[in-house]
Amino acid sequence: MTSSVRALLLGLSLLPALPAIAEPVSFAGPGGVLRGEYFPPRENEQGAPAVILMHGCEGMWRRGQLGPRYAHMAGLFQELGYAVLIPDSFGPRGVREQCTVVPSRQKVSAARRADDAQWAVAWLRTRPQVDAARVGAVGWSQGGSAVLTLAGRQTEGLDVAAVFYPDCSGLTRQKRYRVRIPTLILMGESDDWSLIERCRELVDRDAHQSLHLVGYPLTYQDFDVLGGELRVRRDVPAGRYPRQGVTVGPNPEAAADAYRRLFKWFSRWLDPNA
Question: What value does the mean pLDDT take over residues 187-210?
Answer without folding.
Answer: 97
